[in-house]
Design brief:
This protein is mostly helical. The chain has 15 helices and seven strands. The chain folds into two domains: 141 residues, no CATH class; 178 residues, Intergrase catalytic core (hpI Integrase, Chain A).
């Protein structure tokens, strides 16, 4: 016979604690319900608004796959051949993030959205989901909307849904906030990251040693972070750095400048020190410029985490304020804006194919003559 629970005054009053399902536990700090999987705390299965009946249903779902839920279909989609072979790796990662977000998003009845029955999900319900998430993060809301549309399309073709209820749902209006740093702010941050990156690893106030060099190259070459991570020895030429751009932009070669020479050389020297202890990496055909401490090419998640920690450290050191924080992508905006010349020169440097796309990144105002004849 299971041990009787002690009364917990922090549990919502509408829950009869004597009737709680076995294995369902209350998280006092975050005020949600969870269970244990493999001896570890699971993701939340319900929030503090859930009724006792909702908790029993949530535990049934947690203890065994319920084929009627949205998450069951999403799991089958993730296991499918289409997901594994026809969807790009970066998109797969994004879709897994969206599924995780749905498993954590509580509905008004207290049950996480992913664990709702598919039969109960309607276009208005998904529209409400998009609207609710868009209040804080419109970009995230649109990622989830697109993910659900693709997953439901697969579900219709494979017998898991009758209709694509995500189709026709309106996307959230995204804020066009580029978060481009001021020129002096960008320079101060790169200098700060270089100093803090030289500190011993894991010392208080230290940052990943490579972030300053990645930031320098991203700015000088007007590159996305993924484009910097993709650089290899083959991209180094006498004329400059070959920039292979993603998302349809034209590639080009960025001429060497002292800052690029220094950043590239520093990354090569760092890689050599790491690979000195790992002979197998020295022999590989593809030689990534930016590597992690284990010698492998730096991953997207590792760089994103390193940059977030670097920004938090810079804010704590009062190098920048909270409102001035920026992402690596902001350095691309800064680089295009700082490129000398007219619009045509900037478009050639950035690789953008249209003036409209260039306009999203170039924030400099052209200086023109006043109207009228001059004597």
């Amino acid at each position: 016979m299971p041990r009787q629970r002690k009364h917990d005054p922090s549990i919502p009053d509408h829950i009869d604690q004597r009737k709680l399902p076995v294995g369902c536990y209350w998280n006092r700090r975050d005020r949600n319900w969870y269970t244990l999987r493999g001896g570890k705390r699971s993701k939340p299965i319900a929030d503090d608004k859930a009724l006792l009946s909702d908790l029993h249903k949530a535990m049934e779902l947690a203890q065994g796959a319920d084929s009627s839920t949205l998450d069951y279909m999403l799991g089958k989609f993730e296991e499918s051949g289409q997901f594994k072979t026809e969807i790009a790796a970066a998109t797969q990662t994004d879709y897994r993030y969206c599924r995780d977000a749905l498993q954590r998003h509580a509905t008004k009845i207290g049950v996480m959205f992913a664990y709702l029955r598919r039969a109960a999900i309607t276009p208005p319900l998904i529209q409400r989901l998009v609207n609710d998430i868009a209040v804080a993060t419109p970009s995230k809301a649109n990622h989830i909307k697109r993910y659900l549309s693709v997953a439901y399309q697969w579900g219709v073709l494979n017998g898991y849904a009758d209709t694509n209820v995500a189709q026709g749902v309106r996307q959230a209006k995204e804020r066009k906030a580029h978060r481009m740093p001021e020129a002096d702010t960008a320079q101060a941050v790169v200098a700060f990251l270089r100093v803090r990156g030289a500190l011993p690893s894991r010392r208080k106030g230290s940052v990943a040693p490579y972030v300053w060099a990645v930031a320098e190259i991203a700015y000088r070459c007007r590159m996305r972070s993924v484009e910097v991570r993709n650089l290899t020895d083959a991209d180094k030429t006498d004329a400059g750095i070959i920039v292979d751009r993603v998302k349809g932009s034209d590639g080009n070669v960025t001429r060497w400048c002292p800052e690029l020479v220094e950043a590239w050389g520093w990354l090569v020297a760092r890689r050599a020190r790491i690979w000195l202890k790992k002979p197998s990496f020295r022999a590989q055909a593809s030689r990534p410029l930016v590597v992690s401490e284990d010698g492998c090419a730096l991953s997207k998640s590792a760089l994103n985490s390193a940059w977030r920690r670097a920004m938090a450290t810079a804010i704590k050191a009062k190098v920048i304020g909270k409102d001035s924080r920026f992402g690596l992508h902001g350095l691309k905006h800064r680089g295009i804006t700082d490129t000398p010349g007219r619009k045509a020169d900037k478009k050639a440097a950035s690789g953008h194919k249209t003036d409209a796309m260039l306009g999203l990144y170039d924030h400099a105002l052209q200086v023109v003559d006043a109207a009228g004849k001059r004597d």
